Amino acid sequence: xxxxHPEPIDPETAPAAAPSAPRPLSLRGRAFKALAxxxxxxxxEWLAGLDxxxxxxxxxxxxxxxxxxxxxxxPEPDALEMLMNELKARGIAVxxxxxxxxxxxxxxxxxxxxxxxxxxxxxxVPAEPEPxxxxxxxxxxxxxSGQSVINPxxxxxxxxxxxxxAEILAGGSIHVYGALRGRAIxxxxxxxxxxxxxxxxxxxxxxxxxxxxxxxxMGTALRGKAAQVWLDGGNIRMASLD
Length: 242
What we know:
Cell division inhibitor that blocks the formation of polar Z ring septums. Rapidly oscillates between the poles of the cell to destabilize FtsZ filaments that have formed before they mature into polar Z rings. Prevents FtsZ polymerization. InterPro entries: CAP/MinC_C (IPR016098), MinC (IPR013033), MinC_C_sf (IPR036145), Septum_form_inhib_MinC_C (IPR005526). It comes from Methylobacterium oryzae CBMB20. This is Probable septum site-determining protein MinC. The chain is α/β, with parallel strands linked by helices. Helix content is about 15%, strand content about 25%. The protein folds into 2 domains: about 35-110, Alpha-Beta Plaits, CATH 3.30.70; about 135-240, Pectate Lyase C-like, CATH 2.160.20.70. It has 3 helices and 15 strands.
C-alpha cells in the first residue's frame, strides 16, 4: 500500500481564515456618592470659609469623591481654571464639574443631572485652650523719680513706694504697698472697674479710665493715709482704707 503525503501549504497563497466577530463593547452606568462643593460669590470669602472648615476638620475631604457645583458661581472658563488651582493647592481632587457652561481641556469632565443627597455635617474639633497669659507685673522695690512702669493689659503691684516724678500706668488696677507720691493711672485699657490702692496717699496725679485728678483737686483729707481710688457714676471717688 502506498503512502500519501499532504502537500505543504504556502502561507502567501493560502486562503485567509474568516475573521471572528468583534466582541460588543459593554457600557454600564454606575452611581457613587460624592461630596459637592458649591462655591458662592464673592469667591475670596467662600475660600476663607473653606479654609476655616478644613482647619476644624483637616480630614473632611481627604479620600472623598468631590464634585464642583458651579451653578451659583457661574465662572468664566479662566476663572474656573483659577478656582481649580485654588482647590488643588488645598489638596482637594475634583472628579467632575457640574453647573458650568463650558470647561477647558485638562479640567475634569462636565457632569449633568446630578441628584442632591443629604447634607454632610462638618465635624468640629475642640479648639485647644489658649495658654494663660499672666497680665500682672510686680515691682519688688520702689519706683524712683523719672522711672515709668507700664503694663497696658493688666495690674501693676509695687512692693515699695512710687517717688515723686515717677509714673505707673496699668490697664488694670494699681497696688502700691508703700507711699504713692508720683503719678498713677489705672484702667488705661478702658477698664472703668480698675482701682488704685496705696499704703500712703500723696499722689501728684491720679487717673482711672479717661478721668484724671491732680493733687490740687484732691484736698488733704486723705494725705498720708492708706487709701483707695475708684470710679463711681463717672466720677473719681477716694476713701481711706483704715
